[in-house]
Design brief:
alpha+beta, 159 residues, Aminopeptidase, 7 strands, globular
Length: 159
């Protein structure tokens, strides 16, 4: 682990984290989750985590929901100025470990086809496309963008 990575710390997301999370969300996406989406997720007791740098600045976060034997990754985001440093992989590794700890058999997520960087990271981590949700995401104007549904099977995952 590099010195920078060693200084990063995971913590459960709390309501007081939401303002910083929303700021990163707004910087990262043209159609971000709202403050209410995050607060509702916390109130619903979805598993939510932050990743912070040594100076306590928010580096990234994710929210997931365990359902029956599958973990659904609802949102995963790295602060835009930190892209390309492996933080997304760190977040995904934590998601996978939490899913394994909860005895889940797979992790499911949706991603925009236009989010090529995220698609590449998911593929690199072993996620496979399993379907498409038509017109799932809001897009420019009144248009909508499909979602690629991807799954990582954990039964034989070797992390």
């Amino acid at each position: 682990m590099t010195g920078t990575a060693a200084a990063l710390r995971f913590a459960m997301m709390r309501a007081q984290d939401v303002e910083a999370v929303v700021a990163v969300e707004n910087d990262a996406y043209p159609f971000p989750w709202t403050r209410g989406n995050f607060l509702d997720s916390l109130a619903s007791r979805y598993e939510a985590w932050t990743l912070r740098e040594a100076d306590a600045r928010l580096a990234g976060y994710f929210l997931l929901m365990h359902a029956v034997d599958e973990t659904h990754l609802l949102n995963i985001t790295v602060r835009p100025d930190l892209h390309g440093r492996g933080y997304g992989r760190m977040l995904l590794d934590k998601v996978i470990q939490l899913a394994l700890d909860a005895n889940m058999h797979s992790v499911l997520l949706e991603v925009r086809p236009s989010n090529e960087h995220a698609l590449a990271v998911y593929r690199h981590c072993g996620f496979q496309p399993i379907g498409v949700r038509k017109q799932y995401y809001p897009a420019a104007g009144t248009s909508r963008e499909d979602a690629i549904v991807m799954r990582l099977m954990l039964d034989s995952h070797g992390d």
